[in-house]
Design brief:
The protein has 10 helices and no strands. It is mainly alpha-helical. α2 runs parallel beside α4, α3 runs antiparallel to α4 and α7 runs antiparallel to α8. The N and C termini lie far apart (65 Å).
Length: 316
């Protein structure tokens, strides 16, 4: 077969190059448009995830505020009546269960608390607050992790009220449940030392809250005016101080239970406050603690409104 003339080969080469150029010219804008579309879609999805995380976190702070504001109000009533029973954080859920539409309120409270647990996990694991990896940052994140455990237990107790609404759970004592759990722990090898260690951890949490009340600047994480920050900062200091002071006797009872290898000394937060109220000047102590609880709850509502929520980059 005779070879094609050089001129024909050159013409076909030019034609193919021109076709490739035209194809690239036509497909280039389409490819760029697709890339821009995918980028916009990805940005919208990231924005939706960020807003969902922020909304859940703010709902969680609101739920925490309700728990402590209610517990403080109930404890204050007990102090004024001179003989009523103080309420801990779970006591607020028990009171709510007895109100009209109690089941609906419990569902909303439980979901809000679980949302707060999720936010605490993001703070502790993914460092949502940018605490860092140094000793101080790791300590702060460990505290957030313990907070997630505490509010997870509280959220679970709220849904226990729902499971047994109107039954025995509504009238049972959290102190008795804590004693049963302590007895189970004591039955383990070295159970007395494990129980004492739990008490020491509770005391450490209380001391940590008091230290934060004295040292921390609670307005750093708020996106509000300087005047508003100045007004709400005392709420945080009073609230953290009162909460820390309330944990000290609770932890001391658990330590004693471990050292004595007896679960009878274990109580709940309300029981620890009742013990304080029976001391000289106990009604004043109980009243101040109640006011501190309400201040803590009020500051939680402030955080629900003005706290800077920064979702982790890994999720957005």
């Amino acid at each position: 077969m005779p070879a094609a003339p050089p001129r024909a080969i050159a013409q076909r080469t030019v034609a193919s190059q021109a076709g490739a150029f035209v194809l690239a010219a036509c497909s280039g804008p389409t490819r760029r448009a697709n890339m821009r579309f995918r980028f916009r879609q990805g940005g919208k999805q990231r924005g939706l995830r960020a807003r969902a995380i922020e909304s859940a976190a703010r709902a969680g702070y609101g739920a925490r505020g309700f728990v402590y504001l209610s517990a403080g109000a109930l404890t204050l009533i007990a102090a004024l009546r001179r003989g009523g029973e103080a309420a801990g954080s779970s006591g607020a859920a028990g009171w709510l269960a007895g109100q009209p539409f109690g089941q609906l309120w419990l569902v909303m409270l439980g979901l809000g608390l679980w949302a707060f647990v999720g936010w605490r996990v993001l703070q502790a694991v993914l460092d949502a607050d940018h605490e860092g990896g140094d000793v101080q940052g790791l300590a702060a994140r460990a505290g957030q992790g313990l907070s997630a455990v505490f509010y997870g237990l509280l959220a679970a107790s709220v849904f226990e009220y729902l499971d047994e609404f109107g039954g025995a759970r509504a009238g049972s004592s959290d102190a008795l449940e804590n004693q049963q759990k302590a007895a189970e722990l004591l039955a383990l090898p070295f159970g007395n030392w494990l129980l004492a260690a739990v008490g020491v951890a509770i005391v450490a949490v209380g001391v940590g809250n008091i230290v934060r009340a004295i040292r921390d600047d609670f307005t750093e994480s708020l996106a509000c005016s300087a005047e508003t920050c100045r007004r709400v900062a005392p709420l945080a200091r009073a609230g953290y101080g009162a909460r820390g002071a309330a944990y000290l006797p609770l932890g001391a009872f658990v330590v004693l239970a471990g050292l004595r290898a007896s679960s009878e000394s274990v109580t709940d937060l309300g029981g620890a406050l009742d013990t304080l109220s029976r001391q000289p000047g106990g009604d004043w102590i109980l009243g101040l603690t109640a006011a501190g609880f309400m201040a803590f709850g009020a500051f939680a509502f402030v955080e629900a409104r003005w706290r800077r929520i920064r979702p982790p980059r890994e999720l957005t």
